[in-house]
Structures
1.
Amino acid sequence: MSQPTSSAPATNHGSAAADDAVKQHNFLRNIIERDLAQGFGAERHFAGTPGDAAHHGAGPLDPARIRTRFPPEPNGYLHIGHAKSICLNFGLARDYGGICHLRFDDTNPEKEEQEYVDAIKEMVSWLGWKWESGQEGQAVSHLFFASDYFDFMYRAAEYLIEAGLAYVDEQTPDEMRANRGDFATPGTNSPYRDRSPAQHLSRFREMRDGLHPDGAMVLRAKIDMAAANINMRDPALYRIRRATHHNTGDRWCIYPMYTFAHPIEDALECITHSICTLEFEDQRPFYDWLLSHLADGGLLARPLPHQYEFGRLNLSYVVTSKRKLRQLVDEGHVSGWDDPRMPTLVGMRRRGYTPESIRNMVEATGVTKSNAWLDYSVLDIALRADLEGKAARAMAVLDPVKLKLTNWTEVFGSAAHLEACQAPAHPHVPEMGVRQFQLGPELWIERDDFQEVASKGYFRLFPGNKVRLKYGYVIECTGCEKDAQGQVSSVLAQVVPDTKSGTPGADAVKVKGVITWVGASDAVAAEVRLYDRLFTEAQPDLGGRDFLEVINPASKRVVQAYLEPSLAAAQADQKFQIERHGYFVADREDHRVGQPVLNKITGLKDSWAK
Ligand code: ATP
Ligand code: MG
């Protein structure tokens, strides 16, 4: 049995060690371990003929290595569901000393764009995966494009026609639909099905040469119109579509169908374990049919790849359909693909989720044969676990009201006196250093840290009560001032002398409440964006409901806050824990040093559990 080896230089996971997260149940591991134990790939070599793209850059084949692939279609932005597939494919390759290909499944010219290719590459790297293997300087790239195999696919189609395994069908789309039958009714053969291979071949060449309009005919596999599995009722292999392709331009006016192209892509790249989501289970018989016929014809070498299906990842309070995500963007329900409320990876990155937290979350959820619904909170739990040990702490006031210390001059001798305070950047990581800030006669506190008449169990500021200003002094509340509308405009209190944190007198006065604060003299004004779930229902599109009807109106709230001065120098994308409030990130688009803009990633605890 092959175990992951940390010194396998030819794999493409670099030096990234397995995340420490518990490796949850994953039935694919059993399959791979069985295959490795049987030396499954002994005579594996590249198929196709020299000149095919698979011969370039795929690197020498090592029989003991598994090969997986992540095959996105470049027609949208990646989301959290794709992260599952990415981490699964690259993660298995990493763990078993194999190689994972990044392959763009770009066989549909109309919806695909370079913009998406670039964005997908950026996000796969951001998640921490590499599609190069080998040492620096002699790295081998495992980046592929399905469109590089169009020549091979065309030859494969001609071979099937010549072998009597494919035909050009000139029925109209409506006729084809009607003749396909359904679960209860077998299909009916097309009147064009029994023409000779020579006739089909010349028709297919006419299709390629642009002699027929779009949609006039398609190439179909000749299998069985009565098959119980509808996917085996002569599936379409090629269609006519005059569209400019992002890679091949106007060279082709016929394009292969996904079901035909995908198995060929896997075989040309010598993928060993082709892992996909459950909805492709019914396609597996065709996958095997196609590859074994092409191998019989000498176009592909055995052993052939095998397809395995797993249950997709669904998160509660989230939609992942590309169409629905596009609708949210196009109709302005969110600010763009990278809106921090979007489940896209660009959105999650902007929100402040770390690659580690996403990797750990998908790893911890395991791989099974059923589609699972996970609660959104698993992501926040993973985020907290990642940031708890490494994010610097800071104080900030998100709903500020002024606090005046009315005996300041009496205690410190001058109204201008400022008392230097400090706190560790991290309570358990002294190497992270200390934060400095100043306490003066005026400061900012949270509005709800004061009650004129205390409710039951309230231990914070109310007239006559003492609390500690964290890292500062004990103070005693004496009352408040109000504006013309009767709103509290400032809270009044007195410093209790000789009670500063860290001094011998600190414990002399016992208090039940500790509040956070920011000094008025050194506070940094900031915009803080408080985010919540984008939908109010766990399954936004349940039972065909219009998901737009359950958008959470409170999913974004912007407040003007005050931050402690250590945050003045924060860099975009830097993350920290604001004491009592949760984890925050400096927004990667709008934040500027000196003009902070923060996003709330998540609270310190799950506030939705109740
Ligand atoms: P569509 O095919 O509707 O455009 P898609 O989400 O399948 O959308 P692809 O680019 O084809 O998009 O997906 C790339 C890979 O990611 C596929 O192998 C797909 O199975 C996998 N994938 C997509 N969504 C999920 C999910 N929610 N959980 C796990 N894997 C997923
Ligand atoms: Mg897909």
2.
Amino acid sequence: MTSPTNRRVVSFHYTLRDPSGRVLDTSAGGEPITYLEGAGQIIDGLDVRLRETVAGAKTRVQVPAAEAYGMHDPNQVRKVKRKQLPVDGELKLGEQFQAGSDRGAPIVTVVAIDGDDVTLDANHPLAGVDLTFEVEVLVARAATTEEMEHGHAHGADGREHCH
Ligand code: ZN
């Protein structure tokens, strides 16, 4: 993704829905999301679609799967034996765990259980899902020089310190 030259910091509330209208996630009742444009702090497909928004705007943004969490890759789905899994106790459909002990090992989801055979999906849970964000923009301001150097936002007012 190309970074805009006059980058902004944007703070927004959102509700994320799948194509059936089911709410997948929302910031309502919590902290808004604050990000620096083009810094990879939110998914690219949303970042580029919010470039024209202004503070106070309420908008609906549709992000196709390919520009959100990617398409679902069937090669990331595989069948393993239950005893190979690092899970104690009962295994449930939809359960997620890290496949391996490395930091950054993929999170896999149990998508089928057939006796000793367990089918795991290493795709992101939202892979292949077209996303609709209802967005309310709270703040849209020019990024500070320090934020651009750091590559992230320092809070909605630009005064938050980072570590
Ligand atoms: Zn910083």
